[in-house]
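Fill in residues.
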């Protein structure tokens, strides 16, 4: 029997990952018909449609690093894709443990639950969004690098560049790590670019625009610009307050380990790049908190180090650890307050009050520990109480935040529009539309180039129907605003969806007339 199989830490990490996988599968099953985000359904459909049109495998928006991985499971249905996401999430959590052990961290097995317990990471484990496979690729590349397999690490890291483009920000860090690693690096450095090179060559051969254009043109702003505090504040949504503080504090502690800098540098570089992109509205980024799921396993590793720092009892090291954790808490809390003051977050008064009370409680406790070395050395019960409190907050945050996904109201509106067309004898008409939700409802496949919708509307014949979807009709890549159809004597408005509270009607059905 191997040492690994008898290691209690290994067994604990494995049990945590298996439990996480089971719960993720249950949530996926209960989320049938629901979606975590508009992109959730669209990524799944592009993977499914790749069997009808292989160009979807190279589709720039769909991300080849995701589409190729999910193409086969997607043929079995959305649930199969979500189960695969759960598998990758659990595998990423296990690799977080493996990396923590390679780095020499104490209680390394905690990296697995501290990864899975991050609310958004677990929520995305039962979606088909690109952040989950990205997180797996990143932690797998790190593990291979720590194992001395430089070329394999570079090959896996390259997949990040065709799964989420902002991961290119970590390319210099990986290059430095490969160079500093010494030994037999072989083709490691050039291999870092194999995936984007292959993507661009194959896209051009297939008659598609070269994806490299995405990097060469910082596309115009689509969403409102973010503030400088956004992504540090987003850590509280993505990872929860406690894990966010432990991770940021742990980043400082990781510098005590030989390759711990790689984890810390990757986390802070990613936060900085996302802040700049969102702050300047570059590449049309929405600045969502879920983007932090890509570094969730790294946060789990850093939080493991933060956890061991949380329980230090020696007079000198304990004081330094207490100050580090306290500074991390101040950074996260003040970023949240600034983010809230700028009107970017809208928590109710009770939630904000609980958040502040938690921050004050932990701050006072940790200030006491930092200023009272005797209490720290002789009062382990205080430290254990803090740890129990941390576990309570982590667990309660996960329980309150995570729930099965629900169907968007637009799905019902689309079904109502199709039912109207059938009731009025229009079921045999040609129907033009651009949204994937409509395609899913009609069980059809959209052409890979979405510009066809604009052309179809322009060339529509008498009797043709157009289902105008507010979300996709205004998309800059589709560009069919409502003004093109209404008011217009060539188009008769036949159906308007009942507006949801606080929304305009989002689904309109038009018929082409003479």
């Amino acid at each position: 029997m191997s040492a690994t199989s008898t290691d209690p830490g290994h067994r604990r990490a494995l049990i945590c990952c298996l439990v996480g996988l089971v719960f993720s599968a249950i949530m996926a099953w209960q989320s049938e018909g629901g979606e975590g985000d508009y992109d959730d359904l669209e990524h799944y459909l592009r993977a499914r449609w790749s069997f009808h049109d292989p160009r979807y495998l190279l589709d720039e928006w769909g991300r080849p690093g995701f589409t190729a991985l999910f193409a086969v499971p997607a043929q079995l249905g959305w649930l199969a894709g979500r189960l695969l996401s759960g598998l990758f999430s659990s595998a990423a959590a296990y690799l977080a443990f493996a990396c923590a052990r390679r780095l020499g961290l104490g209680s390394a097995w905690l990296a697995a639950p501290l990864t899975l317990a991050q609310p958004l990471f677990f929520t995305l484990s039962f979606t088909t969004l690109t952040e989950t496979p990205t997180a797996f690729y990143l932690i797998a590349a790190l593990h291979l690098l720590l194992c001395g397999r430089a070329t394999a690490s570079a090959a896996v890291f390259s997949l990040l560049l065709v799964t989420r483009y902002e991961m290119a920000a970590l390319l210099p860090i990986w290059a430095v790590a490969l160079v500093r690693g010494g030994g037999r690096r072989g083709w490691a450095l050039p291999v870092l670019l194999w995936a984007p090179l292959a993507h661009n060559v194959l896209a051009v051969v297939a008659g598609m625009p070269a994806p490299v254009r995405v990097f060469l043109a910082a596309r115009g702003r689509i969403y409102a610009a973010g503030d400088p505090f956004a992504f540090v504040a987003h850590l509280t949504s993505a990872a929860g307050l406690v894990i966010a503080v432990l991770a940021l504090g742990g980043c400082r502690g990781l510098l005590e380990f030989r390759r711990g800098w790689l984890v810390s540098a990757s986390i802070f570089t990613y936060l900085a790049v996302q802040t700049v992109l969102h702050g300047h509205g570059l590449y049309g980024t929405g600045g969502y908190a879920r983007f932090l799921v890509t570094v969730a396993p790294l946060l789990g590793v850093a939080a493991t180090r933060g956890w061991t720092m949380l329980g230090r009892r020696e007079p000198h090291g304990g004081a330094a650890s207490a100050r580090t954790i306290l500074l991390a808490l101040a950074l996260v809390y003040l970023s949240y307050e600034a983010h809230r003051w700028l009107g970017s977050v809208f928590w109710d008064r009770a939630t904000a009050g609980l958040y502040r009370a938690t921050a004050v409680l932990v701050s006072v406790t940790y200030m006491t520990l930092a200023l009272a070395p005797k209490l720290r050395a002789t009062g382990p019960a205080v430290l254990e109480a803090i740890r129990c409190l941390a576990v309570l907050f982590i667990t309660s945050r996960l329980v309150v935040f995570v729930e099965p996904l629900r169907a968007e109201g637009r799905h019902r509106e689309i079904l109502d529009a199709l039912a109207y067309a059938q009731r009025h004898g229009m079921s045999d008409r040609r129907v033009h539309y651009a949204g994937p939700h409509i395609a899913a409802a009609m069980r059809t496949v959209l052409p890979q180039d979405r510009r066809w919708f604009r052309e179809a509307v322009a060339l529509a014949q008498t009797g043709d129907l157009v289902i105008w979807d507010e979300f996709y009709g205004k998309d800059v890549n589709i560009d069919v605003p409502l003004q093109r159809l209404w008011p217009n004597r060539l188009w008769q408005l036949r159906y308007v969806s009942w507006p949801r509270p606080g929304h305009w009607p989002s689904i309109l059905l038009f018929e082409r007339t003479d």
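Residues 3-401 form one domain.
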